[in-house]
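Each letter names a residue; the fold follows as tokens. Both lines appear below:
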Amino acid sequence: MKAVYQNKPLKSRHFKSWFSSKWDWLKSRDGKEAFTTLTTLLTILLFMYTAVSKLLEYDKFVFQMRLAPLPLMQSWASVIGRIVPIVELALVVLLFVDRMRYWGLICSLMLMVLFEIYIIWMKIMEIQTSLRLPCTCGGIVSKMGWTTHLLFNAVFIFLLGLSIYYEWKKRKLKIV
């Protein structure tokens, strides 16, 4: 009796074909639009949530900023404590308005890069001093460790960068 070998597709092949089809859709115009819309929505939710958290817990936010080992942050904590949530809410408005979305994405990327630099600085201070200072982000986001926070922001920086690229290409095609 002969054993019959059937060439069944492996699960990895199935995953590759699924991923390939999704990647092709993402590269299409509809996929780019959906990606940019999703990134915009996530960024609006993030900034709205953190801004409201910072405003509701203003005293805690300022107190935690004064703990940071940055002399400028310690002396300007009350001013920064007002400016950061206002900037985040302004970015929410820019992202929400279609005509301003491109600039909202660019400004959001710049703000996220500034936050990422701050997180890197705080991670370096944690390694050097073994002192774990709290994150000043507000809400659930502030419960993350510095490394997790670094990765979280890196994901948003990537999403925003790719969305800006897609929006730039779309604007370039409209001009030509």
The first helix runs from residue 11 to 27. The radius of gyration is 22 Å. Residues 102 and 168 are 8 Å apart (CA to CA).
